[in-house]
Structures are given as structure tokens and as C-alpha cells.
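One-letter codes give the sequence; the fold follows as C-alpha cells. An example follows:
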Amino acid sequence: MKKTFLIVAVLLVLSVVFTGCAKKNQIGGDGKTKKEMKVTDYFPVAENLYWEYEGIGNEFAGGRVDTEFIEGNKVQLSQNNGGTVVAKVFEVSDEGIKLINSIEESYFRINYLKKEPSQEEYFLKSPLKENNSWQDKDTTWTIGSLDEKVRVPAGEFTCIKVVGKSGDSTVERYFAKGVGLVKQKFIQGDMVVEENLSKFGDAEKDNSLPEKELAIYYPSKNVDELLEDRVVEKFKTGETLAERITELLKEEKYRVLSENAKLLDVKKEDGVLRLNFSKELISGMNAGSGYEALLIDSIVNTYGKNFEAEGVILNVEGKGYESGHFVFGKDEVLKVKR
């Protein structure tokens, strides 16, 4: 039983996010014939789109999907099922909708669009015709219908039905023009797990942008201790966690980073966060050793805490940190204290 539910959870993580369906949309209702249907019509890519799903039959079914980053024909979607967050990178073209990267435990709004592809899995493939099929490892996917009627909490939809078969398990997906995946059903023996669309739209217009509570550390006015502030930040498509932290640390209230300081790169590996700043990080310090120590602690603890890192490497223009008061090697790890 544990193995069966593990299979279900993994499958759901890999397959929950599809887009492309219009409420009460009828095929051909816009004057197009079925032959003119395009795959890209069924995978809308736009800033701040989000989808919410109700799950039935498994605690990890359902959840929320947000559009994190878009560049060219690539889009990164973030799926939160209540147990974990997975970032998925898709290539969207007239040929098909192809998943090329899936990054688990992606809690930090990192842009993976330029990451080298690690897989090739089509979620929908041209031509959009009934009985068209394609192979994905051990699963054979087939378009079963181009005008399947589906009712879910979000409403009634006319969808493309795609069926995947692998051994004794079956996955049914229903998606159509302009909205997204509206229903998914996993069947294996007597077990049935469903995900049904309950809400979708523009998160900014709906006042439903994804948000995250951040911990900000900064020196006290007396320069004798490190203070902590908690803020809740909302994120639009294209906004990274690292960039938001950098902006906050430049605010008048905190004044940890100078206005000209730039965060050039951020990488996390094995619990250690590497930050690479421009040279203005040091020139903008303009402080005595005690104050500079608190500023360094502010940087290490703020980025480290929010990225759930145990330690931080502080680089400047790709080299170690070196000022008139402190010297840290290129790979020297500074421990996150809070």
C-alpha cells in the first residue's frame, strides 16, 4: 500500500500542471475547425496566471500552480501540493508541450529557465487529432476526444481528453483552450485519485499573488546588536526571492546594502548559499570594523535564513571578500547564526 501511494504521489507531482481550457468553450465556436486547433492554444502562457485544484483520494492530490518565470518559448511553473513545491520548466511550441526540467523542493523562487534540460516528456503533442498517440518511457498517451464535456468546481468545460496507460494504471487528463488542466484522474485497481480545477485566473487582479514571509536582519541604531524584522512579500511573475531580499536590504529602514551594490549571482548547494556581489558591496560599507561586522552578519543571516541555508559564502566579483577590516576566502563558509 505504501508503495502504491508513493507511485501516486510521484505521478501527481510530475503531471498536475497543464494549461489550456475555456469555460463552456465549444470546439469551433470561434470559427476555427478542428484541423486548425493548435497545441499552444491549450497551454496559455501569461504573467501571474494561477490554478487551484481540489484533490480526492490522496492527501497530496490537488494544490496550487503559479507562473513563476517566462522567457521566449519557455515557462517555469511552481506547483505546491501542500507537502512540497516543485518547479517545472516547459518548452511551448506548435510541435507540443514538453517538460524539460522538474526541480523538487523548489521553495526559493530561483529561475531555472536557462538550466540544461534533464528530460523530455510531452504532455500534449501535435497533431491534435483523435487517436493520435505518443510514447513516454513506459506510458503510451492517446488523444481520446477533442470535445469531452467536463464539470468541476470551477465550472463546465469542453476539453481535450488525453489518456495515458502504463501496466495496470491509467491516467486521464482533461484540458482545453484558454484556461488549463481542469481534471485529472489516476486509476489503479480499486484506487481512484482525482484533481479538479476549483479556481483559475490572474493572481494580481484577484489579489492572490503568491506570498512569503521573510526575515530581515539589520544593525541597531546604536550599532550594538542585530535586530530582526518580519515582512510578508508578494511576488509577481519574473520576481526572484534573491532580488527581493536585495531590494529590502537597501531600504532606508535597514540600510544594509548600498544603492549601487548588485547581487550578480546566487547558488545553493549542499546547504550552503554562495552569494556573488559587485565590488560596490565593499565600497558602499564605509563603516568601522564593528559596524561592518554587523552588516556582514545582516547579509549572511538574512539571505541564509530565507534560503534555509546553514552557511553562506560571500564573494565579490567572483573572488573572496576583502576589505580594510575583514578577509574571507573565496570558498570560506560563514555560519548562519539565527
Remarks:
- Residues 211-335 form one domain.
- The helical segments are 2-15, 241-249, 280-283, 289-306.
- The chain has a mean pLDDT of 89.
- The CA atoms of residues 78 and 157 lie 24 Å apart.
